[in-house]
Amino acid sequence: QVQLVQSGAAVERPGASVRVSCKTSGYSFTSYYVHWVRQAPGQGLEWLGWINPNTGGTTFAQKFQGRVTMTRDTSTDTAYMELNRLSFDDTSVYYCARERGLITARSPPEPFDYWGQGTLVTVSS
Amino acid sequence: EIVLTQSPGTLYLSPGERATLSCRASQSVSSSHFAWYRQKPGQAPRLLIYAASNRASGIPDRFSGSGSGTDFILTISRLEPEDFAVYYCQQYGSSPRTFGQGTKLQIK
Q: Measured between CB atoms, does A65 come within 8 Å of chain B?
């Protein structure tokens, strides 16, 4: 079955960086986009961006441009999200999620059909 | 950026009742690129409806979606105990992909 399993909780200082991993299984990793979404405590959902695991190509929300990096390791079917220059406002649960449709040359956008369990990142001094 | 506004913020109903949740977009959204999710406490969101009216895999038929343009509706025909959660709408046709702020469905 499709699974996305994320790394454990992290506590970081302001100004530091955090990297969250998302290990996938049960499907062809390079055939589906992986997105990252975050949720501050008691708040709604905020999209950070996506990575094409086949090519490594990425697209980020403008808010996070220059501060976020998304990479992948096709040998372990794992996606990574790194967020730099952390501030207190970055305290959130970070989720990876699979986009529903297969990646093709003309694939239309699709919603997120499988999600990781979430990783709590706490920024604290 | 397309802003999605959900109403009401909180909805109080009883099991067995019908729930109607709304989502309004700041500009027109293709119905092919509109979804609803349910999030239970401590869990990741779960896809319920995609392309405005299509149920995702494993979603019971008490869930239905409708709408077009800027106004979309999620209807739950007969509420079950597990339906008391937070619901989010999402547009995925343009970047950034945006979510509504959520509607919390609470037991009356």
A: no
Q: What is the pLDDT of residue A31?
A: 96
How far is the alpha carbon of A69 from chain B, nearest alpha carbon, in Å? Answer: 16
What is the C-alpha separation between A92 and A118, in angstroms, rounded? Answer: 9
Query: Per residue in A64-75, pLDDT tens?
Result: 999 999 999 999
Predicted pLDDT of residue A105:
74
Kindly report the number of other CB atoms within 10 A of residue A12's CB atom.
16
Is pLDDT at A106 greater than 90 in this prediction?
no
User: From the CA of A100, how many Å to the nearest CA of chain B?
Assistant: 10
Task: Tell me if B99 and A118 make a contact (CB, 8 A cut-off).
Answer: no
Quote the CA–CA distance of B47 and B56 in Å, as a whole number.
6
8-state DSSP, B83:
G
Burial class (CB in 10 A: 0-12, 13-18, 19+), B107: exposed
Is A79 in contact with A22 (CB distance < 8 Å)? yes
